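Retro notes - structure team

What went well: the batch runner handled both jobs without manual restarts.
What didn't: labels got mixed up in the shared folder, which is why I'm recording both outputs here explicitly, each with its sequence directly above its tokens.

Job 1
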Amino acid sequence: MYQPIDFVTPQILLAVAVILTVFAVPLGMHALYRLRKYRKDTENSRTYVRRRDIGIESGLAGFGLLLVLLCVVIAAVGWKSSAANLVANVQMRYVVSDVSMTLWNGSTAKVDLTDANGIRGYGVDVSFDALGIPVLGDLAASEDGHHAVKLTLTQR
């Protein structure tokens, strides 16, 4: 059974983190500005309502930044897990000794691998069929990047 590969969810989480940052940072800056202004005001204009509003505003900014951190951590863990699953799926399907993912472009991945004969191939395309089974492209670049290498990709 092949392990699930999901690179979309981490990217969505990073987009959510960017959006939250866009809102949380200015909100925190505004709360800091209001707090400084509040401290400079006279005693008569320092009301409980203003202090409470500043607390709510700074609390929301802090909560937003905490969510940003949480989204980034979950995205990093998800990305690393999916990359490890991709490598494990390729090693489960094909007789290869070394696989490392170098690029993900949305529907396919580029991997560097060593086949059963010890030939190192760079930039091999990996796509997935409807069942999630990895399908490797035949041509790979050589180490210098100018020549094509024919890999011997035998299935397990």
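Job 2
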Amino acid sequence: MLTISEDAKERIDAESKKLGQTQVLVLTLEQNQKGVGSVLVGFADKTNSDSGLIRWQDESTKTLLSLGELRFESGKFYFYPNIDLEWKKTPRSEIQKIISNYAFTKEPIYLEAKEFFRLRPILSHCLRREGILSIYLEGNICQLEIPNLTQEKEEKISEDLLTYLSSLYASPWEE
């Protein structure tokens, strides 16, 4: 469920009083030419079909954004995705499993190192830089074949995965 800050709730109340009609926030997700997602926030009159303070663009936007937090700061609304990554060991020491609360992809993907160029640059550069041999993505699971994982490599990979997920791409493919 999307977390809405008290300041954001107060701003919705202020807009409702100003207009003399109960308002909701309309959340829309748009991708730019490079595929990076932006959350657009606007006001609309509350209708009978609205429940709560938010009206979603569509069900997929609701699914994606409902894990995050909406805040009102310095006169603007901001969306924070609140991404969690959990590294898990597997029976094979060279295979690392990462589970996220956000989906990496909608369809299963398996790629070996020579195919990494097909992925978004943030993923492709990370995988090559850290010496990853293969990647498997399915839903919120990412499995990496990486010999000699170190704490430093894990931190760098985590940072890049967080950047990828917080960019709200529609898919991991370079288009």
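One thing worth noting from job 2: The two ends are 31 Å apart (CA to CA).
We'll revisit the folder naming next retro.
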